[in-house]
Amino acid sequence: MVFMRRSWRVGVVCALASGVVVSATGTAGAQQVTGPSSIEISQTRTSPDIPSGFCLPAFLALRHTTFEDSSIFRLNVIVSAPLCDPIDPVAAVYAMPLEGGAWPQTLVETKGFRVQEPGTTQITFTKRCAPVQFDVINGPTPPTVAPWGPYHGPLLFPFDTNSARQHVGCGPAPVIPEVPTALILPISTAVLLGGAAALVTVRRRRSLA
Questions:
Q1: Starting from the edge strand earliest in sequence, which strands make up the sheet with 39-45, in order?
Q2: In sequence order, what are the beta bridge partners of 108?
Q3: Same-domain status, 17 and 37
Q4: Which tens digits make up the pLDDT trace of 71-97?
Q5: Which of 84, 110, 124, 193 has the highest local Cβ count within 10 Å?
């Protein structure tokens, strides 16, 4: 996951509040729900003028755009050329605690899809009253995630946190750090130590002068 990591302890309560009930009989790569789904996936293929047998690695062939309004969040995955190796991402909805905060988060629903041929895949998440996290993940989706573990797999576009979205639902917006404290502290310590080392170096240079 990017480091917006998150989680909402009352995922089942959130799911019930929004009319979604998780079923344990989902197929591999997809967790099915009874009631209204929050995930819709549509794929449109294109026919680019490229040599037969030509392919590209995903980091060269994939790009994305997003759209959001009061009712949906949409991630458009655009494939410009055939991928040399297919990717099987998972669209996931994680519920966040109703009482506020960001962790732990509980898995509510997943839908898997394949990306390989040129075209566009639209992943549309429907916003309801429950506070949730919308992710498109290239890896495992454990039933509960938090900064202290377990983690889910990386986002399909791991260097763009805007490719995921936290929807606060009908309540007030929670205070959600973008980076877990466990990661901030080592970084802050490194910065402070680096600054101290630089200061010592400057003082040494001055004393030598």
A1: 39-45, 119-126, 72-79, 62-68
A2: none
A3: yes
A4: 999 999 999 999 999 999 999 999 998
A5: 110
